[in-house]
Amino acid sequence: MGIGLSGCGANNSPPDLAIAFARTTVTGTEDLLVGRYTAQGHPQGHLINLGSLGLVAQSQIMASHGRLLWVTTGSALYQLTPSGHAHLIWKAPSHRTILSVDYISGRLWAIVERVNGQSVDLYCQHHGHFVQVLQGPLAITTLYPAHQGQMVILRVWPDKAQVTLWGYSRGVIQNWTVPHVPQGSVAVGARNVYLPVTEGLRKFGIEILPLTHLGHRQLHMFSSVKDAVIEVIPSHPAYGLTLKGLIPLTGVSFSDQDLVKWPQPLQTTVTSVLSSSWVIILDGPSQGLWFNARGDRFGPAFQVIAPPNTFPRAVQPWNA
What we know:
The chain has a domain of 140 residues. It contains no helices and 29 strands.
């Protein structure tokens, strides 16, 4: 299963890549190594060893803004520069692990789980220090950008999801409970929030949650897997990812009329997460292609050769 991640800026050419690799040590633990690569996948400089990899999320263990990159190892959060320096900026609080990191609405966020598994908390960097701003229930928790400095908090359980529109100063703005199994991504369009869901093995749908009280909540079920929106990309505009290509999310209907077809056959089932302008679509663990959401076009493909005895763990655009 691939992961799609996002870049920032509206440049004509995509930025560099930051790729994190997990490497098994002789003692059976894993180290986390981070390297910088060109947009086509060529290595730039040496790998940075951040030490032992602890308990982290499946995705969003890296975030970037401008020339800065942040990486969590679980026990600590590091800030990396293009020159190859890593700075420890935060150690995980006692009996907690830093699962993921995000840069949204001009702020650095971290999802932190208590080791005893009682809660998943949201931390924010404020004047150089990380402060807890929200305590949530035990669930798979991810963050996605929204409009006007807001964001969406997605909490996932085996049989349902909770979608929360949240603002730093306003707190909870809107809250929805979805009684379906979510696919694990959220995108905010001009009028709606989009959440792909599944029922059984072959029934795919998308929950459409209105941003205004004038709209109506809808569940759109797709007639076949090949037509289904498997994941959504919270870019501007937002896109839905299908087996045929990418479609813009502009309303409550989905057709191939505005489909941007894949430029090449896919090797695996790809998925996606965050986006601004340039989006990375991973087709397998170490290869993929770029997509410019604002330009509605694909960019170059890339393929990365992993160092010996390592496995690609995460990818993030990096404007070095």
